[in-house]
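Quiz preparation item.
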């Protein structure tokens, strides 16, 4: 029932104010997050909760399979605002194991409109087909692809103009790739950090 959600909200707001008097007034005055989180829309991966952060500490963008596409003005606008206005210091691309979008992209079923979105994932799979074909178990193949997709999206973040401008002007900014395990609640660092234009091929650099 929607009324339950509204009741839950009132109880949560009351509890927050009791624990942190003046919290909402302070929050309304400004937001100064140091992190941009680009994650999957999956309801089992709530960004703030899994990293133990309060409202106002994490700027969040989510879509199916945590993708960063050069044609997605929504995601690019979020990155622009986070980097140029909020001056975040870290951009985290966080995928998760067992991602339904990733799994669907490895198949050939006609899924309708979402096929246009999953096509970008298929491109990543095609570029990594040797690695994926080496996984005999389907679940292992999906999970490995989840990791490879995060790595690809970290690269895509680095190719965006706001990120490259920040690096060229000396703004403190790093990009990271993580993956979350729904079965154990633990985040794995994929060790694909980037903090300068030197991390990408020259062809993608913006003068």
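Solution:
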């Amino acid at each position: 029932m929607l009324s339950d959600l509204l009741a839950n909200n009132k109880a949560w707001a009351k509890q927050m104010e009791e624990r942190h008097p003046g919290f909402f007034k302070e929050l309304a005055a400004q937001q100064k997050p140091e992190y941009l989180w680009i994650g999957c829309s999956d309801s089992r991966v709530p960004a703030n909760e899994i990293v133990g952060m309060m409202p106002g500490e994490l700027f969040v963008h989510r879509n199916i399979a945590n993708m960063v596409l050069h044609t997605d003005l929504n995601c690019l606008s979020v990155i622009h605002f986070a980097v140029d206005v909020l001056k975040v210091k870290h951009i985290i691309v966080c995928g998760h194991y067992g991602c339904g979008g990733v799994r669907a992209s490895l198949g050939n079923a006609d899924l309708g409109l979402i096929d246009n979105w999953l096509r970008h994932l298929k491109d990543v799979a095609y570029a990594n087909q040797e690695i994926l074909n080496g996984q005999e178990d389907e679940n292992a193949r999906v999970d490995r692809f989840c990791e490879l997709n995060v790595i690809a999206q970290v690269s895509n973040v680095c190719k965006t103009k706001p990120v490259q401008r920040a690096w060229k002007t000396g703004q403190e900014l790093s990009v990271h790739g993580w993956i979350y395990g729904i079965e154990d609640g633990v985040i794995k660092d994929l060790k694909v950090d980037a903090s300068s234009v030197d991390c990408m091929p020259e062809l993608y650099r913006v003068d």
